[in-house]
């Protein structure tokens, strides 16, 4: 008997008596399922699903960009929830008659729609509270009295000679920049995650630079040395001392916790911005 045939039979055998069995293909989805009070129904997830702590005990079905089909089938899920970059995997699972849900979590509006979609699929009413929390932070986002250009950088490094990843367009970080009354310093293309060089940063010349850092995933970075490297780049941000590091483990995760990200970053853009001379 081939492995595919065995897993196919196993899936249908277990599915006869199993309750709801959810597999998440990304950390964001894992967080959303737990926030919808359905964490007990999760039977598998992707790597880097660290929140809440209970998620760290779940079986791993692979990297969130390249999950393992056989591991997924072995867990006999009733539904597999992934993001748009998981389309290939989700299409393969349909061959085994497994229900799939594909989400787009790029923007704040898409995150809200996705929370509602997952709640409907897994029969949860907790989405109302989660959406309300996001809407409250949108409404109360700190507005800057001196609108300026902001560049949000992914990750902290003390060597800026290699590729620098920043927040581009059509993504929730840009939504937050706009909610705060500011503009994205990156205006060149519609790329969500542009990769820039040292020279590109100088050309963009942002008024403020916010670097997203997580000590949990970047524990060996010399923060002082890294900050000095950024301050050495001739930009308005460095000249006016408008470069800051924000260390929170939720910032990169487009889940219901985007409410926390809105509050944190909108406040950062306002309270720490200094006018130039």
Automatic annotation (TrEMBL):
PROSITE patterns: FE_B12_PBP
Coiled coil: none
Domain of life: Bacteria
Domain (Fe/B12 periplasmic-binding) ranges: 21-273
SUPFAM superfamilies in alphabetical order: Helical backbone' metal receptor
Keyword annotations from UniProtKB, A to Z: Signal
Any matching Pfam family: Peripla_BP_2
NCBIfam families for the chain: TroA_like (NF038402)
PANTHER family attached to this UniProt entry: MOLYBDATE-BINDING PROTEIN MOLA (PTHR30535:SF34), VITAMIN B12-BINDING PROTEIN (PTHR30535)
Protein name: ABC transporter, periplasmic binding protein
Organism name: Sulfurimonas gotlandica (strain DSM 19862 / JCM 16533 / GD1)
């Amino acid at each position: 008997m081939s492995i595919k045939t065995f897993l196919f039979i196993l899936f249908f055998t277990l599915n006869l008596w199993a309750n709801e069995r959810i597999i998440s293909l990304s950390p964001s989805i894992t967080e959303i399922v737990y926030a919808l009070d359905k964490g007990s129904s999760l039977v598998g997830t992707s790597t880097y699903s660290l929140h809440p702590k209970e998620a760290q005990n779940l079986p791993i079905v692979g990297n969130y960009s390249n999950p393992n089909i056989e591991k997924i089938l072995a867990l006999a899920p009733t539904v597999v929830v992934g993001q748009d970059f998981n389309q290939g995997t989700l299409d393969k699972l349909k061959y085994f008659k497994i229900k799939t849900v594909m989400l787009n979590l790029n923007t704040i509006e898409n995150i809200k729609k996705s929370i509602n979609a997952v709640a409907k699929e897994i029969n949860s009413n907790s989405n109302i509270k989660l959406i309300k929390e996001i809407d409250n932070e949108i409404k109360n986002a700190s507005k800057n009295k001196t609108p300026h250009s902001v560049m949000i950088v992914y990750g902290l490094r003390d060597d800026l000679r290699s590729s620098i990843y920043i927040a581009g367009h059509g993504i929730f970080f840009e939504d937050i920049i706009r909610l705060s009354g500011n503009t994205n310093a990156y205006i060149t293309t519609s790329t969500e995650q542009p990769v820039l060089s040292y020279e590109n940063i100088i050309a963009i010349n942002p008024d403020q630079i916010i670097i997203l850092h997580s000590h949990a995933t970047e524990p060996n970075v010399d923060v002082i040395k890294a900050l000095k490297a950024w301050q050495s780049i001739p930009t308005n941000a460095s000249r006016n001392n408008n470069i800051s590091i924000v260390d929170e483990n939720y910032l990169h995760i487009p889940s219901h916790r985007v409410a926390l990200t809105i509050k944190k970053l909108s406040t950062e853009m306002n309270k720490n911005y200094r006018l130039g001379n």
